[in-house]
Design goal:
294 residues, alpha/beta, globular, binds ribose-5-phosphate
């Protein structure tokens, strides 16, 4: 793998440099200058290897997508022939269907854009709900979907004795089932009705959580309302403790406080998005995925 370039942005340097070391890639900083009017200019190193990797995680995705577009096109002009995107958090995957005529299906549009820019895409737990595979969302030759669920299951076992894993909604069942299977854990999945961006109704399934160490497991925490409401219900149902393990720490400014006020003891996340709650690294798994590509 030695010799392939790893292009990264300054605000993701810490994670990108760790990946460069693990995967034996040549780190190449993309410089950015911000103009007073809100535009920005990028500068890539002028010498890149024929095979390159672009690292960018897509929390707060709107500017980052422009960065990706500009950087990927410029890498081609500089002679890169095989470009892999490592995007630990892949944004815009939740809108996978038009519920009313005219509604934008962002998954398809962003997926097609990425497929036009890269030969390969590596991501972690993309929010695929009505779509069966990552290749369907991003039609590239190599669309690699790593799951952090078994890693979160392992963390659950390390942190709590005989944990009971709960998914807060139907969509989480794919990850909770994987985490539980990897470590033979009890698990169940709740149902959720979303009433608004910051309002959800959760119904727990028939189960006995009295005296149990419950871990809520999900792919994303954004406003935190899903996890907070589920935690309140589980504590009211007699759970001894409720902790949270999520792949993507999108957390808005109030989310962590909300989750803690709901009675959650610990919040654990992966380093797909850099955050003080990071407790699991997906970088070894990404390194393994890269070994077949660069
Ligand atoms: C959606 O189904 C996701 O899996 C999460 O449950 C959701 O994005 C969490 O959102 P929030 O933290 O705003 O409730």
């Amino acid at each position: 793998m030695a010799g392939a370039s790893l292009l990264y942005f300054k605000n993701e340097a810490e994670t990108a440099l760790k990946l460069a070391k693990l995967a034996d890639l040549e780190p190449c900083l993309i410089e950015r200058h911000d103009f007073p009017d809100g535009e920005f200019k990028l500068k890539l190193p002028s010498v890149l290897s024929h095979k390159a990797v672009l690292f960018h995680t897509l929390d707060h995705p709107n500017e980052k997508l422009i960065e990706l577009l500009l950087a990927a096109k410029t890498a081609r002009q500089l002679g890169v022939q095989h470009l892999t995107l490592v995007v630990p958090y892949l944004a815009y995957m939740r809108q996978d269907i038009a519920f009313v005529p005219g509604e934008v299906v962002s998954q398809r549009i962003i997926g097609d854009l990425l497929a036009s820019l890269f030969e390969a895409v590596i991501t972690v737990d993309p929010h695929l709900h009505r779509v069966a595979s990552l290749e369907q969302a991003i039609p590239v030759k190599n669309a690699i979907n790593i799951s952090a669920a078994p890693m979160l299951g392992e963390l659950a076992v390390e942190k709590r004795a005989h944990p009971f894993l709960i998914g807060p909604d139907e969509e989480s069942s794919q990850w909770v089932a994987q985490a539980a299977a990897a470590h033979q854990l009890d698990y169940a999945v709740a149902t959720k009705t979303r009433l608004g961006d910051r309002s959800v109704e959760i119904h727990l399934p028939a189960m006995d959580v009295k005296g149990r160490a419950v871990i809520l497991l999900d792919d994303i925490a954004s406003s935190g309302h899903t996890l907070a409401r589920a935690a309140e219900l589980l504590l009211a149902a007699g759970a001894k403790t409720v902790d949270v393990a999520v792949t993507h720490a999108l957390f808005d400014s109030q989310a962590e406080d909300l989750i803690k006020r709901a009675g959650v003891s610990q919040v654990w996340t992966t380093d797909c998005i850099a955050h003080p709650s990071n407790a699991v690294s997906v970088l070894p798994a990404i390194t393994q995925a890269l070994s077949g590509l660069v």
